[in-house]
Structure formats: structure tokens, C-alpha cells
Amino acid sequence: MIQDDSEKRRAVEEAMDWLLQLKADPDCPQTLREHGEWLARTETNRSAWRAALTTWEALGEVKPRHADLWPARPTPALPRRSRRMWATGAAFALAAALLLVLAAPALMIWLQADFRTGTGESRVVTLADGSAVNLSADSAIDVDLTPQGRHVRLLSGQAFFDVAHDGRRPFTVDAGNAKVVVLGTAFDVALDDAATTVQLARGVVGISGEGAARGVAEMAPGDMATVDGETGLITHATVPLEEIGAWRNGLLFVNDVTVDSVVARLRRYHPAWISVPDRALGRQRVTGLYDLRDPDRALAALVQPLGGKVRSVSAYARIVTRF
């Protein structure tokens, strides 16, 4: 069931990407050809495409030209009233299914979280032990403080931890497949689909990765450790102390990460859907400092040096393509 849900989610996201591509450049032969190949690949893709078209129209948007490249399977003729009722019911069902697939992960996080923030919102939370957690935009944590230990799980997004010292109770942060253990220190943790990144501002922490290639490392101030989301392998780098947690002042510093990873962070500050359908562009690695107070400008600064262009499809959608 988990695999089925993941496959449906992937297909829905890809369908929305294709909608944005076709709307941005409806007569591109390569786009039309590749979209047709994607449709022909699986029934899941075709179902997601039909659901995406229905939802797109339900939101009041005009379908891009050539959108009906793979129409729904023919159905027996029905009386006009029955056809109208069936079409209305099907539209609502498909729209609801699409929204459910997209919203399910966020709903699960919402149910588990003790503290969370919305898009573009940041928040400082003081825990019962005196530790302070600064939550970035669209982030969530689950907190469990007991006499034996202090445990926080970063469910999504990014957080800066300033941990109150308690020699009897270690403070543990789980984020994806990474675990950070401290007694009293300050550090930043960022979680995305590809990896977990930890940057240490003060004190000493131990970090471990779980998976096929486990690793355990001790970090000192100025160290940055990235734990691969699949293998658990830890890679190391250094970062200027003043840039750790820079997002608290509206700045995002990244070091040798993918464009997809940066876009995932910018989405937390932007009300629009941001899509990078070009997989080669999304895998490009970048290092830079971006202004979170102007996410459109940050997005342009991210992709333009790599030959990318940000297209504003509507107030609610941005698509990044090659020039």
C-alpha cells in the first residue's frame, strides 16, 4: 500500500509538471513527444493526467492546448441528465482524489507535530527544559521530554536548536535517517527528500546515519555534515559560523547541494507551486547565498547561472525551464 501511494503521488506530481510545461510552451515538439511517451508508460500516469486536468479546470484554469492527448476510456452512452450528473460526480471525485494524494503527507505531519509553522512563517519555541527551537517556514517537530532523556523529531523543514545543558539527560534530534545527540549546544538541522544537513554553531555533537552505509561522527563548531537520505553515508564540509542558521535573518546559505534541494527550501517561503521538470537541471549542484525575503528573486538567482528561466504561469505556479 505504501508503495502504491508513493507511485500515485509521483504520478500526480509529474502530471502537474506536464500541465505547467504544456501551458508554458504548448507547441514544443519535444515536450509533446516526451509527454506522450510518459502517458503511454503506465495506467497510473494516465489516471493521474486525467485527474490533473479535472482539478486544473475545477480551479478555473484553462487547459493548455493539446492537453487531451490521452482522453478517458470511452463509456456507454447515457441520457443527458445522467451524463451531466456523472460528469459532475466524477470531477469532484477526481479532484478530491488528487488533493488527497497531495495532502496526505502534510496531514500526517500535522497530526504528529507538537509545533509547526506555515508557508513563510518562522517561530521560536521554548521547551519545558529551557531549550529554544527556532522553526523555519513550513516546518514541524514532535517533542518528547522525559526524566530519562529529551527527544525531538524534525518531521519536516528546518530548525535551529539552542539546547539547555543537562548532563543527566542527553538531547536527541532525529531527522530523516540522521540522529544528532548533544548535552548542551547550538546547531541547525535541515531535512529534505534527498538528505539531512546538520551545521554546528556551538559545542560538540555526535551525528550518526542509518542505512546500508552507516557512519558515526563528532562535529565541532563550523562543521557541516550531510547524511544521504538513502544510504546514510555522511559527508563533511565547513561553513562560516555567521552563516549557520542565516535563514533566521532571511538568508539561505547552501553549500554543494542540488537545485532540487534549494527549490524544496524555497517552496517553504513561496505561496506558489514551484516545479523543476528538467531532471538534469534539478540535479545540478550549487553553492550560494539567497534572499528568502524575496523568493522569486532567489529562485531566479539560483537557476539563471545554470541556463534556467523562471516562468510565472499564474500567481500560484512557477515553472523552471531552460532558456
From TrEMBL:
Residues 114-205 form the FecR protein domain. This is FecR family protein. It comes from Shinella lacus. It comes from the Bacteria. InterPro entries: FecR, Ferrdict_sens_TM. The chain crosses the membrane at residues 90-111. Keywords: Membrane, Transmembrane, Transmembrane helix.
